[in-house]
Design a protein that fits this description.
Number of strands: 10
Largest sheet: 6 strands, antiparallel
Number of helices: 24
Mean pLDDT: 83
Strand content: 5-15%
Distance between the termini: 24 Å
Low-confidence stretches: 174-181, 628-632, 652-658
Helix content: 55-70%
Radius of gyration: 38 Å
Number of domains: 4
């Protein structure tokens, strides 16, 4: 009965904690959506991407004046200057109003405010920054050949361009950390940084021609970045866009567009405050509960730290504390982000006055224009640094749902019907570990084989991480045999065919078999347990009875019984009766004691009832009614004889058999079956 009560207490606790765990997901989701604004940010960034890709064209043909190339077709230094002069300038530095094709009239030049608008609703902030990363001289790997050919060797720092980088690789941090000097990817040569000013009434094309004539791009250029900033007043979103041209040492030029976007006013809507208060308030409650549990464990162990430490820490407590720490890490980065956004908002207030003074000055080298350019540089740097904080907050927020999921599993663990998945994984852990050793051995063997066969032809196998990802995708059905055929069809057939046989048809199905075998055992063991809905009904019923004074809490029953009979009663085999429980728990009603005792007996009977198959019953009965047949194997003819003899037994339990011999046979057969 004590075991039954403890199980009921744990089940009630799990069911009561389940809504809180689900609400934590809801608060986090709503808070994260209010912070990230994915539909708004993506709408703005995709619009800029589309404009740069589709409208910034060069390589025009006459008489139709159609541009046949975009920034993805920049393959030489001359192409880059052509794209800047004809393509990018046309969309970002327009001077006249565009008219429809075939129109024989002009709409005149644009005003200053019209020229300051980009994509209808976005205001240009500052000029366009052209920055550059340079290669540096280094020792040659083969100095004999290099010296014989009179070659100078160069090397790079930061981003490796032997393979096409991802957008995340390209947009990595550009600030050099003192404790990690090699962490940055973009080493800007500030002596090569150039500003193209559109707010001043000076020809943009002239500035670009001067760049080309001075040889701004040369064989020492490793990366050229074109950056500009826009602000959407309707969404209150500031966006920094960078078009990267990556000049690999191999001679290939990779192109990539990256953005940094965020809302300037972090709490312009009251919902943001609400979701933050709900989420971090929820986390604070969890923190207080876990702290109280730790202090209680310390008190129970008489303030012995080592003993209390061992008693307190378990897997689920680790999950709780990790979720608490990560939540507060999100809070710290969010506060830092809000502070940066407020500072940025104050900085933007001075923008218009500084650039208006520059436009009214004598020229680009005036003190007013130099001050405006310094302001732009500081603004870009401020946005870049704020972008690091935003990215850190996003990464932590991206991993945090794993902690929420583990907390859900904690709530599931105490309810047998909900704990099927966790129990299956726990019971199968040993088999899965051994299976994992075999699977990883075969998997990494094929990774090495794929890199050896296809590493030079197929980009997906050009590096270890790419090959691992490609084989994982193939495991789930995503693969491209056509690319593998570049190394020859026999090799592609051998590699792909053997991998499908070993990994998919054999190992993947073995994994499913291991899990399903354990799942069947766990599911069979949980069939006798109460469902979630029955648990909820019991909680409401006991709560109503407690309100009327007809119910004593189960935890109080166990506590008082243990206080009177000692902790050893929990492991004792002594039979207890209703009177024992009533005498140990003052105030307990006899009706409740009888209900709990009866429920405990019913659960014990269900858990300990053997699962007897009909074949076992027929075989065993046959040995007692089949004239001494000792073999458990029963043929169809023997089954017919058994049925005939069993039919002779009277159906009345009071007169189970017509003779003492038959009665004894039935009793012995039943005992053997059980």
């Amino acid at each position: 009965m004590l075991s039954y009560l403890q199980g009921e207490i744990e089940g009630e606790t799990a069911v009561k904690n389940l809504p809180a765990a689900i609400l934590l997901i809801v608060w986090f989701l709503m808070m994260n959506l209010s912070h990230e604004l994915p539909p708004t940010i993506q709408s703005i960034e995709k619009a800029i991407d589309f404009d740069i890709t589709e409208n910034a064209n060069f390589a025009f043909s006459s008489p139709l004046y159609m541009g046949h190339k975009n920034f993805m077709d920049v393959n030489t230094f001359a192409d880059w200057y052509s794209w800047m002069n004809l393509g990018f300038s046309a969309i970002y530095f327009p001077s006249t109003h565009a008219v429809s094709e075939g129109a024989n009239f002009s709409m005149g030049t644009q005003t200053f405010l019209e020229a300051s608008t980009y994509l209808i609703h976005n205001r240009k902030i500052g000029g366009v920054q052209l920055s550059q990363q340079r290669l540096f001289s280094s020792e040659c790997s083969n100095p004999i050949v290099a010296n014989a050919l009179e070659l100078t060797c160069l090397d790079y720092r930061g981003l490796d361009l032997r393979l096409k980088p991802t957008e995340l690789d390209v947009s990595q941090q550009v600030v050099e950390f003192q404790f990690l000097p090699d962490a940055q990817d973009f080493y800007e040569d500030t002596n090569r940084t150039v500003w193209i000013d559109y707010l001043m009434e000076f020809p943009v094309s002239q500035q670009l021609r001067e760049l080309e004539q001075s040889g701004w791009l040369d064989d020492g250029t490793y990366r050229a970045k074109v950056s500009f900033m826009t602000y959407n007043q309707i969404y209150d979103v500031l966006t920094t866009t960078s078009v990267h041209f990556l000049f690999a040492i191999s001679g290939h030029i990779f192109k990539q567009i990256t953005h940094r976007s965020f809302k300037v006013a972090a709490h312009s809507e009251w919902e943001s405050w609400l979701y933050e208060v709900l989420f971090f308030g929820h986390i604070t409650i969890i923190f207080l509960c876990e702290g109280w549990e730790a202090i209680s464990t310390l008190r129970e162990n008489k303030w012995k730290l080592v003993k209390a430490w061992k008693a307190y820490w378990n897997f689920w407590n680790v999950v709780d504390w990790v979720s608490i720490m990560l939540a507060y890490a999100i809070l710290i980065t969010w506060i830092s982000q809000c502070t940066g956004q407020d500072e940025l908002s104050l900085t933007l207030k001075d923008y218009w006055g500084l650039h208006t003074s520059c436009r009214n000055s004598s020229g680009m080298q005036s003190s007013e224009c130099l001050a405006a350019r310094a302001y732009d540089s500081q603004l870009f740097q401020q946005v870049e640094e704020l972008g690091y904080v935003v990215r850190a907050n996003r990464f932590i927020s991206g991993f945090y749902p794993v902690c929420i999921m583990m907390r859900l599993f904690k709530a599931f663990a105490a309810q047998p019907r909900l704990a099927i998945v966790t129990k299956t994984l726990a019971l199968a852990a040993n088999d899965l570990t051994h299976f994992g050793i075999v699977f990883l051995s075969i998997f990494f063997t094929y990774v090495a084989m794929g890199m050896a066969f296809f590493g030079r032809e197929v980009e997906a196998f050009a590096s270890f991480d790419r090959a691992c990802l490609a084989l994982l995708e193939a495991l789930m059905g995503e693969f491209s045999v056509e690319e593998m055929e570049l190394s020859g069809r026999p090799i592609a057939f051998f590699f792909f065919g053997t991998y499908m046989m070993a990994a998919v048809l054999l190992l993947l199905n073995m994994l499913i078999a291991i899990l399903m075998d354990v799942y069947g055992q766990v599911a069979a063991g949980s069939r006798t347990s109460e469902s979630l809905w029955h648990e909820c009904w019991d909680i409401m019923r006991r709560g109503a009875q407690k309100w009327t004074g007809e119910h004593t809490p189960l935890a109080e029953i166990v506590k008082k019984y243990v206080e009177k009979n000692g902790p050893e009663c929990l492991e004792s085999d002594k039979v207890i009766y209703i009177e024992d429980v009533l005498s140990s728990v003052p105030g307990l009603l006899r009706r409740q004691a009888e209900e709990e005792m009866t429920s405990a007996l019913e659960e014990f009977a269900l858990e300990n009832t053997p699962d007897i198959q009909i074949s076992e019953v027929i075989s065993t009965m046959g040995r007692y009614f089949g004239n001494g047949a000792a073999s458990p194997a029963v043929s169809p003819r023997d089954l017919e004889k058994i049925v005939q003899q069993v039919a002779k037994c009277p159906p009345n339990r009071g007169a189970l058999a017509s003779s003492d011999v038959d009665n004894a046979n039935v009793q012995q057969a039943a005992e053997e079956i059980v």
